Amino acid sequence: MTAVKEIDLYKPVKEYFINKGYDVKSEVLDCDVIAIKGNKVVVIEMKLRLNLELILQGIDRQKLSEDVYVAVPKNYRTLKTKKWKRTINLLKRLDIGLILVSFKNKTCYVEELITPQNNSGIRVRSRNIAKLKKEFECRSGDNNVGGSNHSKIVTAYREQALHIAYILEKKGPLSIKALKELGTDYKKTGSILQKNYYNWFDKVDRGVYSINERGLKELKSYENVIKALDVKI
């Protein structure tokens, strides 16, 4: 069997929460995985080993949600060790959930070993959770893979910029007003073009923009995102 990578954990963890009725997206505001069902927000951080770094990351995420899990591959050799038992006790005291993922014969098994009891004592700020939910809800779909540290993250902002770029590619130079009429984000279209964070756009006249060569090149690498956006023009 090939070595397990962090990104291999994402699919089984995602399916586990989807089967429990959650909507799941990855790489949201530095969190590996976010699962939302109604008003309940779950944060999951994934690593290949259950170590201090992962536990500290879990504690940080408790500022965003009362329901925080860490997920790691199941290592049968460590399950009966004294260190493992002490670590499990620590997670319970910190009220951090634990998910173990087993890989056997090309089949994945997910086990929820610890469930958070919402008694960590850490205050979840409403402003933080609102920001997290806004980013989650503004994304058209799940266009990232949790644990993929070296990939460009498709944020809601990037999706909005791609929407603008796609229309400019198809229609040619347009005004901000015309872009909004074609369905781009009403509040952010002007700001995205004026700040030009990704350097995809050129200003050709007052309030009129076109897509440049860099933007055209980037569009090709995000064809799957454009398809998910389902742009109608």
Automatic annotation (TrEMBL):
The species is Natranaerovirga pectinivora
Protein name, per record: Uncharacterized protein
| Taxon lineage | Bacteria, Bacillati, Bacillota, Clostridia, Lachnospirales
